[in-house]
Amino acid sequence: MAGIKHGAPQVPTPLRVMIYFESTSGWFNTTGDEKTNEVLPALNEVIATWKENGSELLGTFDRDILTAGAAGSAGYHACLLYNIPDLQTVADMTHSFRATGLDKYFRLEAVIGRPFFLLEN
User: Fold this and answer.
1) Which residues of 49-70 are buried (b: 16+ CB within 10 A; e: fewer)?
2) In 3D, which of 121, 117, 119, 120 has the Cα closest to residue 7?
3) Domains, the chain, ranges and CATH?
4) What is the pLDDT of residues 1-60, one digit of tens each?
5) How far apart are CA 93 and CA 88, in angstroms?
6) Nearest-5° angle of CA 71, CA 62, CA 29?
């Protein structure tokens, strides 16, 4: 069976980026008051800045229907799918967790891909 012939994948503009999101032990070891009064407002503030950097949220995916606790072998609790203007913006988004101290509570990992050519043109 011969494969489909095509050239090398082209890097899209904007970038298609999946951000894996995981709660860390810092989140699980934090009191309810600290989560409500400090951590979640900081998280919401950072996410709000992402709306202003030219990124477009395409969708989200949360695995919590059939999981609880640590992320396990999948390494993430949720995924955020974005179109992001450029690589520097991706780096700025992940760095925003370091700059605000949210990396104590959450881990982010960005994966760059492209729309799946068999389903999206």
Assistant:
1) ebeeeebeeeeeeeeeeeeeee
2) 117
3) 15-113 (3.30.70.100)
4) 567 777 888 888 999 999 999 999 999 999 999 999 999 999 999 999 999 999 999 999
5) 9
6) 45
Structure tokens at 106: 């959450």
For the whole prediction, is pTM greater than 0.85? yes
Token digits of residue 16: 């298609």
- Residue 60 · residue 81 · CB < 8 Å: yes
Taking residue 90's Cβ as centre, other Cβ atoms within 10 Å add up to: 20
Among candidate residues 98, 76, 94, the one with its CA nearest the CA of residue 84:
94
Non-local (6+) Cβ contacts of 59 within 8 A are 81
Q: Confidence band (pLDDT; 50, 70, 90) for 73?
A: confident
